[in-house]
Write a structure and sequence with these properties.
Largest sheet: 5 strands, parallel
Shape: globular
CATH architecture: 3-Layer(aba) Sandwich
Order of helices and strands: EHEHHEHEHHE
Structural class: alpha/beta
Strand content: 15-25%
CATH topology: Rossmann fold
Number of strands: 5
Helix content: 40-55%
CATH class: Alpha Beta
CATH superfamily: HUPs
Strand order of the largest sheet: 3-2-1-4-5
């Protein structure tokens, strides 16, 4: 089974990864896991002033921080994974990666803001679900 785990570094992502590991037997053993993290781009003027190498280093450092807890849980469980780092709109990029990668399952941790919060704040989970037809497991 090929599983995409969308990771933002929150406690919800760690909870989703832990849930996935606890229930691997239901998913047919050791799956192929892609741990995906999407960083929002820096504003154009800031990125231009800093330069490409500094911006790249910034995104790399922030991604390392965001994935640290999930990687630690997967490593402790002896589960292999592929890291994927992207910069852009999280909902759109995760949905596109899920479509193109022909995943069996998409695992997301949801912050659970509720319908009013999603309406006002926007929700990466909602955007991902609207943008692809891959079956999803949402952990709160």
């Amino acid at each position: 089974m090929k599983i995409l785990v969308a990771a933002d570094g929150s406690k919800y992502t760690k909870r989703a990864v832990s849930y996935l590991i606890e229930h691997l037997d239901l998913l047919g053993g050791k799956p192929e896991i892609h741990l995906v993290h999407v960083r929002p781009p820096l504003p154009g003027r800031a990125a231009a002033a800093l330069g490409r190498s500094i911006v790249r280093r910034y995104h790399d450092e922030e991604t390392r921080r965001a994935l640290a807890a999930s990687k630690k849980v997967l490593d402790r469980a002896g589960i292999g994974y592929k890291e994927v780092h992207m910069v852009g709109s999280a909902g759109e990029l995760i949905a596109a990666y899920a479509r193109k990668g022909r995943f069996s399952l998409l695992v997301l941790g949801s912050h659970g803001h509720g319908s009013l919060g999603s309406l006002l704040l926007g929700s990466v989970t909602s955007k991902v679900l609207a943008g692809c037809k891959v079956p999803a497991l949402i952990i709160r």
